[in-house]
Design a protein that fits this description.
The protein is α/β, with parallel strands linked by helices and 323 residues long. It contains 11 helices and 12 strands. The protein has helices at residues 2-5, 39-51, 67-79, 103-117, 135-151, 166-172, 196-205, 234-249, 254-263, 278-293, 298-308; strands spanning 10-12, 19-21, 23-26, 56-58, 87-92, 94-95, 98-99, 122-127, 155-162, 182-186, 209-213, 270-274. Helix 2 (39-51) packs across helix 3 and helix 3 packs across helix 4. The protein is globular.
Length: 323
C-alpha cells in the first residue's frame, strides 16, 4: 500500500507559475490514436491519475480527430473538482485533415477545443509540430494570434512542439522575450537519445519551460515493438529491440527503466506518457515512486546503454527542410 501513498512531485514550469506533475498524462490514447480505448476505461484512467497526484493533461484536436479532447473533457468534468486543480494543454495547427496555422483556423481551433474539453480556457496552447509549416508564418501570424487569445483569456500560456531542435531556436530567436512560455519536445530525452540536454541551457536563458514526451521513443522501448509507421532507421529499431530483449531476459521491464531515465532530470518539468487504462496509470506512478525511493536500476541501465551505444543520439527526419 505504501507505493500508492508516495506524493507525486510537482515541478515549476519555466516562468509560468504553474506547477506540473513530474508524470504528465498524455491523452492521445484517449482518442484511440494508437489502439482502441473504451471511453469508460479512459475516464477511469484520468480519475486514477488525478487521485495519484497527476495534475497535467495534454491533448490535441489531432488525436483521434478531436475524440481525445472530448473524452478528456468528459473525464475532467466527472472529477467534480475546482478547475484550478488541474492543468490542461491542447494544440492547434495540426488536424486529421492536415496542417493549418493561419490566424483564422487557429481562432476557430481554440473555440472548438474549449467546446470539446468543456472548459472556459486552457492553460497552454501549443502550435503542434511546427516543422511541417512555414516557420516565418508561425512567427508573424500564428504566435501573434495566440497572444491575442491570451489577452482574451481563452489561453494562459503559449507553447511550440516538434521534433527537430532548429525549429525551436528559429522561432525563439525571432519573437520578443517571454512570448513563448513552453516547449514540448519528444523522443529527445530517452535512453537512446538524450540530445535535449544540449538544448536545456539555451531554453533556460530564454526562460522557457520544458516538457518532454515519448520516453519510450514512440514504442521502441516496448515488448510489442514500435508501430509499422515508426520513422526510425532499421539500425535504431534493431538496437532498441536488442535492449528490450536484454531486459526481458533479466526479468526487468524496459518501459519502467525508460520512464525513470526521463523522470530523473528535474530540469524537465514534466514527462508526458500516453495512458489509456487504470493499469497503465498505476504502472507509471509506481515507476516514479520507486525512482524517488530506491532509485534507478543502474546496473541494467548501464547494460542497456552499452547495447544502444552504436545508435546513441541518432534521430530521424521530420517535417520540411528548414534552413
Amino acid at each position: 500500500m505504501a507505493m500508492s501513498q508516495a506524493k507525486m512531485e510537482l515541478r515549476p514550469l519555466g516562468n509560468t507559475g504553474l506547477k506540473v506533475s513530474a508524470v504528465g498524462f498524455g491523452a492521445s490514447p484517449l482518442g484511440s490514436h494508437y489502439s482502441p480505448v473504451a471511453e469508460d476505461d479512459a475516464i477511469a484512467a484520468v480519475r486514477e491519475a488525478f487521485q495519484h497526484g497527476i495534475n497535467f493533461f495534454d491533448t490535441s484536436p489531432y488525436y483521434g480527430g478531436t475524440v481525445s479532447e472530448k473524452v478528456l473533457g468528459k473525464a475532467l468534468k466527472a472529477l467534480q473538482v475546482p478547475r484550478s486543480d488541474y492543468i490542461v494543454a491542447t494544440k492547434c495547427g495540426r488536424y486529421e485533415e492536415g496542417f493549418d496555422f493561419s490566424a483564422e483556423r487557429v481562432r476557430k481551433s481554440i473555440d472548438e477545443s474549449l467546446e470539446n474539453l468543456q472548459l472556459d480556457y486552457v492553460d497552454i496552447l501549443h502550435c503542434h509540430d511546427i516543422e511541417f509549416w512555414s516557420l516565418d508564418q508561425i512567427v508573424s501570424e500564428t504566435i501573434p494570434t495566440l497572444q491575442r487569445l491570451k489577452q482574451e483569456g481563452k489561453i494562459r500560456f503559449i507553447g511550440i512542439t516538434g521534433l527537430p531542435f532548429n525549429i525551436f531556436t528559429y522561432v525563439l530567436d525571432r519573437v520578443p522575450p517571454g512570448t513563448i512560455d513552453v516547449v514540448l519536445s519528444y523522443c529527445h530525452y530517452s535512453i537512446n537519445d538524450s540530445t535535449l540536454l544540449d538544448l536545456l541551457p539555451y531554453l533556460k536563458r530564454k526562460s522557457v519551460g520544458v516538457i518532454t514526451a515519448s520516453p519510450l521513443s514512440m514504442g521502441l522501448f516496448t515488448e510489442q515493438g514500435p508501430p509499422e509507421w515508426h520513422p526510425a532507421s532499421s539500425e535504431i529499431k534493431s538496437a532498441c529491440k536488442a535492449a528490450v530483449a536484454h531486459c526481458k531476459s533479466k526479468g526487468k521491464k524496459i518501459t519502467k527503466l525508460a520512464l525513470q531515465y526521463s523522470l530523473a532530470n528535474k530540469e524537465i518539468s514534466s514527462v508526458l506518457v500516453g495512458m489509456g487504462s487504470v493499469s497503465e496509470v498505476e504502472e507509471n506512478v509506481a515507476a516514479f515512486t520507486e525512482l524517488e525511493g530506491l532509485g534507478m536500476d543502474q546496473e541494467t541501465l548501464f547494460e542497456v546503454e552499452a547495447i544502444l551505444e552504436p545508435v546513441k543520439n541518432l534521430t530521424w527526419p521530420s517535417g520540411i527542410n528548414h534552413k
